[in-house]
Amino acid sequence: MSDKRVVALSGSIQEAGGSIIRFPLISVQGVPLRNHIATNWDSISAFEAHPSDLLIATYPKAGTTWTQEIVDLLLNDGDQEVCRRAPIAVRMPFLEHFSPPHCPSGLELLKGMPPPRVIKTHLPFQLVPQGFWKNKCKTIYVARNAKDNLVSYFHFDRMNQTQPEPGPWDSYIPKFMEGKLAWGSWYDHVKGYWKEREKNNILYLFYEDMKENPRREVERIMRYLGKSLPDDVISRIVELTSFKAMKENPMVNYTFIPMPVFDQSISPFMRKGEVGDWNNHFTQEQSRVFDEDYEIQMKGSNIPFRINI
Ligand code: PPS
Fold first, then answer.
1. What is the CATH T-level fold of the domain 3-297, as seen in this structure?
2. pTM summary value
3. How far is the C-alpha of 248 from the C-alpha of 224, rounded, in Å?
4. Ligand 1 mean position to 16 CA, how many Å?
């Protein structure tokens, strides 16, 4: 892949040859999205999914890349070389990713790809282009407990120079609680897909389950994809998608996004990959306030989240 193309993938880039821009958020139907997504909303929502397309949907930082790599390896019978054919962002375009005019968007990458395609999105259920549901596309949703998700998002916003400035940790927590971060409310996101999972045949996974027993979850995804692979291939896929292996894999660790855009010296994309890192971030008081609000926002929902395993 040429340097130009890799740089273009980042979608950050200097709008007029100047410095990197942290894009502001604009509301789309009440959901804050980066300005280039909002201004191109009509073409994103008009995207025509093919019945054979597979959607991987998540709130940002819930385990998207991990799931993408598992899916690619499953679809390619565990062939490591095939799965190194291109960066994950090229193999599986990010549907709503829109950048300044000179950068290829998710839609442009998809235009050049015949179905079946695997497509990444962070859009909440109600904003996903309707064709996915009309065509009964398979969809894998990955949810991660709120506190770890928040911590991961905070560090990502520090290093990704296209996201709005996170500010200090103390003031980041209320932004998450109030749904003011890019892609909006975590609470609405996880509840939205949970509510629709049966009607729309959505495979709803949890990051914590994947950490606890990766093999069980890889097999669950395999069955959902309608595949059946031998035990040794499944073992290889589990190994190739361990945190350690993925951290070292340049096709998934986002080192293909150039340094000024993803500044991995601030915080690596493959940061810790753990359940319970929130314990190292929240003070007792922050945790109490967060939990109190969580009870209210999640009232009546029975999604079995775990904040420690
Ligand atoms: S993004 O930018 O929204 O697509 O990010 P996403 O891939 O959803 O989330 C990144 C977090 O997932 C962790 N990760 C993993 N954890 C365990 N095992 C594997 N293989 C793995 N791959 C990625 C990654 O480290 C980020 O979490 P944190 O807590 O920040 O480490």
1. Rossmann fold (3.40.50)
2. 0.95
3. 28
4. 31
